[in-house]
Write a structure and sequence with these properties.
By secondary structure, this protein is α+β, with helices and mostly antiparallel strands. The protein is 44% helix and 21% strand.
Length: 200
């Protein structure tokens, strides 16, 4: 974790070695500098409300995304107030964890839940979600989408396509050949539709 201490004037009084490694700097070079100076105007704008909250005496936890050295990092930060003996905030401790791998794993799981692993096109679940966002029994969703299309005078088209003699391809040439046929079928369909059309 990046661990640092910031005083009530929003200037660093401590930064650990990991902060130096993450930012590609000598961690001692941030001492005495403001959070805005070290993090830059753009990131500071997103941090400022959290800094104000912790300097008012309340702990803060938040997540964010930032660019470092051409890479995108996801982080989770905790700001903990540092109080004087009389309870007056004199600054805060900041602990920031790199959660990039966790976020990428979540994104991958989300994608796998909604897209077919073989072809990369939407699966039945995502098709159902896109067809109609409102809860309805599965068989009624298409009817609801058609009714919405009529009400809004917006056209809707649904094509249900099948691969002729696909069982024979699998039986004669094997499942690997069948998988390649399905993948090629998906590629050709994707080449024929607009970006906002859905293939599932």
């Amino acid at each position: 974790a990046i661990i640092s201490h910031v005083d009530r004037d929003e200037r660093y009084t401590f930064a650990n070695a990991f902060m130096g490694r993450m930012f590609g700097i000598d961690e001692n070079s941030v001492i005495g500098k403001s959070v805005r100076e070290v993090r830059g105007d753009k990131i500071y704008e997103s941090l400022a409300p959290h800094v104000a909250t912790v300097l008012a005496g309340d702990a803060v936890n938040f997540e964010g995304t930032a660019e470092f050295s051409g890479r995108t990092y996801h982080y989770q930060t905790s700001y903990i107030p540092d109080h004087d003996r009389d309870g007056t905030p004199r600054g805060f401790f900041a602990m920031t964890f790199d959660i990039t791998k966790l976020k990428l794993a979540e994104q991958l799981l989300e994608r796998e839940a909604r897209f077919d692993a073989l072809t990369g096109v939407a699966n039945r679940r995502y098709f159902g979600e896109r067809l109609h966002r409102l809860p309805a029994p599965r068989g009624e969703r298409l009817a609801l989408a058609a009714a919405r299309s009529r009400r809004q005078h917006a056209p809707i088209a649904l094509l249900y396509l099948d691969i002729d003699r696909f069982k024979a391809i699998n039986d004669l040439l094997g499942h690997a050949a069948g998988d390649e046929v399905i993948s090629e079928f998906a590629r050709r369909l994707q080449a024929c539709v607009r970006e906002d059309d859905l293939i599932a």
